[in-house]
Amino acid sequence: MIRISKEKILQEFYALGTRFEVPKNALINTTVCQEKITHVYLLESGIVSLSSITPQGQTIIYQYFSQPGFLNIVPLLTRFYLGYENDMTVDLTAKTACVIYRLTVETFMAKLAEPLVKDLIIQTVLADYVTVMEKIRDSGEDSTKVNLYRFITQHASQDETGAYILDDFFTYTEIGNYLQVHEVTIARLMSELKRENIIAKQGKTLCIIDMNALERLK
């Protein structure tokens, strides 16, 4: 019932917005401290990253969005309800070709008055919070090996045959940026998984041969 309600509500938002087909690696939106947020973005398909650049030029990836839903409502709502403003500039970037809908903040806030919409927004914000907190936990408590295994299981998807794969855009460099480790370390750990016949490469696609084994390792 919750899933059906979510799909219905998202369709209502899509109908209120403007549809864009965004190419891979294109910048969708930048949220800057103290600058007014004028639009809300929704993902229909594809993968989007939330990231920032440190003063040293390092890319920090906070989250990947791969399910249909809202992309930039957390900074909007924290400003609106809490008056909270951080000093970060964050980017939403299409990591694959994406279908995005954009609607005005005024339109979004008007819909927010509807009880079912408000419930969905609360679920979305809480899910984003859990994602960030788990990333903080993982970076502080577990080994890089365990974090990599968890990353693969969280971001793998099933293709039309039912096999688990990791999207081509998740290169060793991309994964290393997310886990904050060098890509050479990622390559070494991936090689271990290949030797154990848990994963395999088919062209550029990473295939998970034994998802149960990977789940046990993490």
UniProtKB/TrEMBL annotation:
Pfam families the record matches: cNMP_binding, HTH_Crp_2
GO molecular function: DNA binding
Domain of life according to the entry: Bacteria
InterPro entries xref list: cNMP-bd_dom, cNMP-bd_dom_sf, HTH_CRP, RmlC-like_jellyroll, WH_DNA-bd_sf
Domain Cyclic nucleotide-binding: 35-112
SUPFAM superfamilies in the cross-refs: cAMP-binding domain-like, Winged helix' DNA-binding domain
GO BP term, pick one: regulation of DNA-templated transcription
Domain HTH crp-type: from-to ranges: 149-217
Keywords: DNA-binding, Transcription, Transcription regulation
Signal sequence region: none
Protein's recorded name: CRP/FNR family transcriptional regulator, anaerobic regulatory protein
